[in-house]
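Exercise 7. Given the components listed, write out the predicted structure of the assembled complex. Treat all entries as one system.
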Amino acid sequence: MTTVETGKKTKVAPLEKGTAKGQSVPRKEDRRLVEGQGTFVDDIKRHGMGYLHFVRSPYAHAKLGSIDVSAALELRGVYGTLTGDEVAILTDPFFQIAAPPGAAVKDYALAVGKVRYIGEPVVAVVAETRELARDAAELVEVDYEPLPVLVDARKGQDADAPILHEECDGNVSYSGVWEWGDLDAAFAEADHVVTIKELHFDRFNSTPLECDGALVEFNRGTGQWTIHTNNQFPGFAAIMMGPAMRVGLDKLRIVTQDIGGGFGNKITSHPQLVVCCLLARKLKRAIQWTEWRTDFHQSMSHGNERWFHDTEVAVKADGTLLGFRTKALDDAGSYLRYEPLGGVIWAQVAPGLYRWKNIRLEFTQVMTNKAPVSPNRGYSRMQHLWLTERIIDIVAHELGFDPVEIRKKNYVQPEEMPYETPNGCVYDSGDYPRTLDIALDLVGYSTLEERRAEAASRGKLLGFGIGSTLDSGTNNFGQSQLINPDLQFSGNNEVATVKLDIFGEVVVTLGTTPQGQGHETTASQVVADIIGCDTDTVHVRVGHDSYWNSHAGFSGTYASQFAVTGLGAVKGASDMLAVEMKKLASMVFQCSPDDIELADSFARIKGNPEAALPFMALGAIVNANNAGFPEDPPTLNCRYVYRPPFDVPDKETKKGKLTLTYATQIHACIVEIDPETGVYEIVAYAAVDDCGTRINPQIVEGQVMGATAHAIGAAMWETFAYDEDGNLLTPNFYDYHVPHAMDMPPLKTGSVESPSPFTSLGTKGMGEGGGGGIHCVCAALQDALRASGNAIVYDSHNPYHRVWEMLQDSESTRANVEVSAT
Amino acid sequence: MSEPTTSRTVTVTINGTMYEREVAASKLLVHFIRDDLDLTGTHVGCDTGNCGACTVNVGGQAVKSCMMLAVQADGLEVTTVEGLAGDEGELTPLQRSFGEQHALQCGYCTPGMLMSATALLEHTPHPTEDEVKVALQGNICRCTGYWNIVEAVVAAGKAGA
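Answer.
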């Protein structure tokens, strides 16, 4: 069943009893956050704690000589230091996800032997105050012997290219050929072949407002660390840290509370967490580390920069898209912290929203002297979806197709759902043409030509563009075996516990690490409906704690999956608790469990409201008043591990289900360019989302808005730009302009609900948005430029100066594209 | 030989409570508030005065507390986000509006947004959308895209009519 809600603003509303699911109930998180009573990692203090500051490399590539920390140590109030030499003795290099050649990378928590990017941590200094630690770090003397620098991944395989990791025999970390269908037949059948020589997806990230951080304590008696952090994927951090530190994972208690934004950028802080752990043990005191903004920009989780070379598209005369082949060149930066997983993640959405049957992609990933890349909202799929949308609009431009009609003609159609892609992924549900129609309606597409003429009368160039994206969610980690067959990861999981406590409190714990997604609220909505109470009665503990029995190897909040994995676990545990509560009530009332219903915080006999036990009585009986039962009463403490149904993908054909659900987001916008300057403005914008059943529509809409803002920022302003020496030119919010309130265009949102047939609640993971705003801004600029030079947009990032350049020299952009008849 | 003075005793009134503390001359007001007084609702999001997460009210004006030294606040009255709600914990119309309009997700920018918007509402009780955007241009939010924040401030202004 599909329901449509068009352009209607979601409003918070009081709860209707018994149907919390689907309502925009007020968020449980908000009260403490608007009062300034949240607990973020930098808010946590311990007696005698030391503040950690990193000495960072000023060179993009250099051999490390001697390191002298003595002047820093002499300063009163400095507690101690840690160097790479110590790290190399105390730890092993981090486990590498890559097969050879990337497998040979030696990555430590501090630089050992060499530095490979500006901002790389070289020494850690701990002192009594933040200011002192920073001052003392200035006194550390490090000898560097500068080496030639590799900044442009396209030069990474040149014979004279500087080599970052000598062990790797070159700079390539991963390469592989991905081919499905029959490319030769597709190109033989084609009437036109459109060739695009080079496209570039830019480097940026979501820059959460709170930087990374930790408060780490070491218990000398038990040999255990307690790591309060804002890392958003504790399951991953633990499996990276434990082997490197040569300890079992039981020694690493990872705790999160409120997290100030993550967007994937807080997955790979494990090197810094290891430094904190080593220093907490060495200095016998709690270690506090909060990253400075410049540190974050220089060193953390840049998004994957990617080129697409020699893209060829097979098109029939009627606009049917038969297939494409391309060569993707990915820039991993200097270390492989989560890479080369980006080499497979894109394949979750290999054909985009389209019915292409024949796809070949040669993927090569190169390491450069820039910050390591790591997941960033839309990770690796956004880059690929940008390619598919660019292909559509360039093909339409070259062959004279309407960008709306060519999409509708080639979209996977609703009646084909569930749809198996050429690489064996299954799109679970969705109605792309209808979702597009709603976006067109909201953005005012029917009056486009009048608006274009009106803008022209003011000397402005007006253009319209579409960005169709998929938000693939709930990873099958078995896809990692497609880039490294020896890896032993597959499937996915998340854990929840739901219990009824002594006084009838309903207490929920989860393995997830929310960063603003409202998990406490949506989890309580699911629980309340199942065990028959209101959401205020349900207490969802904040964040993640490895001391709770509610985590597993994939616990965390990343990759659009909470509504499936997290809520799937919550639903499973709640269903178990409901059964137990009915059983307990039936033991008290000497009736069948089937005669019991749960409602209004009572377990009662159906049709006999007098025979009712309040939740408090049930909790008290089990926990404090349990004598006299003929058999053991239930525990009322239920744990459920949600596990999606996956097989390991086929390593030969590279086919298989890589993700469980596919939310749709279709964006459309209208831009106006000032041809004199290249300055442009988005004058209308619509984003329509279909993430299946929505537990809390207002929270979903908030995610759509946030993803839209990130995409607009990346399209127009946000870039991690490097000079030829490897200096980051945008290391803070002065130079890296994120959108402000005045930058945001008018926005309309809409939604479609196509419940997933594969999930227990009909939900789909969502929130990443697939970079829809980047795609539609590119398309709209190209449409607007048609009237003045007819340039073809070739880069995902289009600041005003690039638009001006395209206006001045449109010819070279068109030379990037060729059309041939077959 | 006497060492140069690197610290000083200051008296600052925050949310109606007077604090007398010795502070290092180099300490920023935001770190004084957060680290010394444990009022951790005021946040730090950048090193450069761009993000506004540390916004507090000093002497009736919204001020980024990372752009002031603690010693500069000597003798002044400061309000932080913890001082917005009433004595009985009742939220201000603006705080309530933030929840109603889903104007916060992670909540990290929220204290700064509330302090900037509160200062706006004090001198412009019924702001237009454009007035709100101008007043909040020094505050960065990375979760919401601002649409709901602007709406929440406008709605709070209307509710206060």
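Discussion: The first strand of chain A starts at residue 3 and ends at 5. Chain A touches chain B through 63 residues (CB under 8 Å).
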